[in-house]
Amino acid sequence: MMTEDLARERYYEQLQPLNLAPLWSVLKGLVPAQPVPAARACMWSWNEVYPHLLRAGELITAEEAERRVLVLENPGLPGKSQVTDTLYAGLQLILPGETAPAHRHTQSALRFVLHGSGAYTAVDGEKTPMHRGDFIITPHWTWHDHGHDGDEPVVWLDGLDVPLVTFLRAGFREEFSHKAQATSPGAGNSTVRFGSGLLPIDHVQRGLTSPMFCYPYVRAREAIEVQARATDPDPHLGVCLRYVNPATGGWAMPTIGAVLRYYPRGFATRPYRSTDSTVLVGLEGEAEIRVKGCDVLRIGPNDVAVVPGWSEWTVTARLDTVLFSYSDRPVHEKLGLLREARS
Ligand code: GTQ
């Protein structure tokens, strides 16, 4: 036995300089019986984070920082700027009069507005005002800058597919020649142009992202409220609406799936899991998120929680609760990898 082990060890040593390795010693880890996320279930409480964001506002300008953001780092992935195994999240602060300079990158971004008003984001020449609860898209490789004409701090959550793009080594970035791009206020409110159930008769879908950049909360809130009155909540998901590309009915973004969720007071979902990893944001109410094997996460307005892929979880609503979430589900779907389990 011993000589066999030794013979193998010697054999492995011979393989190493040839850049060869025996599959049999790593096979089970390479092809696991089920997903093994490195990310952990975790939460950031708004009350804890907001003072640190304001402090960042005293220490550095948006222009110097380029983006004044506190990255939400998953404790299972320290130093990696990852909120899950595939996604990025950060909280961005912009103060009155500031500009976060224009750039573009191949990573797709979403903004979910949490606090304050008066800020805007400009995407490819279109200026979109930001209000709490609005879901705003920066499609990949579009010029974007953020600004602020109001008089109070504004904070939003940035959700990007950075880890996915890094894994594919497909990241490019360019700075714009000027601090801010020229915007034409009258030329194209994409929400009205594409989000009114009407499309130009010769509309052709360009690229992979929704032509509608902003999904205002006033509309989304009404939609989920009416939906909740019209149907019973799904036992595993509650009342769950996808943000869609109005021209295709598909996800609004190619790599990130955004969802609005409503749970009536007292409602408890049954255990559910899916291969995609989910970032949840509290909008209204209060709920308990139980991820199997982890402490209870109590999520309220502006808190951010993470449910790693293939983790079984439930939601129990203490009050009428609205949550926003985003995940890498569109990628799982496109690659035929999405799996769900309900119990
Ligand atoms: O606003 O363009 O949180 O490029 C990270 C990278 C925000 C942005 C982030 C970015 C941005």
Describe this protein with a few key phrases.
6-stranded antiparallel beta sheet, 343 residues, globular, alpha+beta, binds 2,5-dihydroxybenzoic acid, Jelly Rolls, 22 strands, 31% strand
Explain what the structure shows.
The protein is an alpha+beta fold. The protein has a single domain, classed as Sandwich (Jelly Rolls). It contains 8 helices and 22 strands. A 6-stranded antiparallel sheet has the order 1-19-16-21-14-13. Strands 2-3-10-5-8-12 form a 6-stranded antiparallel sheet. The protein has a 5-stranded antiparallel sheet with strand order 7-6-9-4-11. A hairpin with a 5-residue loop joins strand 17 (287-291) and strand 18 (297-299). The longest helix has 14 residues, at 2-15. The chain is globular, with a radius of gyration of 22 Å. Bound molecules: 2,5-dihydroxybenzoic acid. 2,5-dihydroxybenzoic acid binds at residues 67, 69, 90, 92, 105, 109, 144, 158, 160.
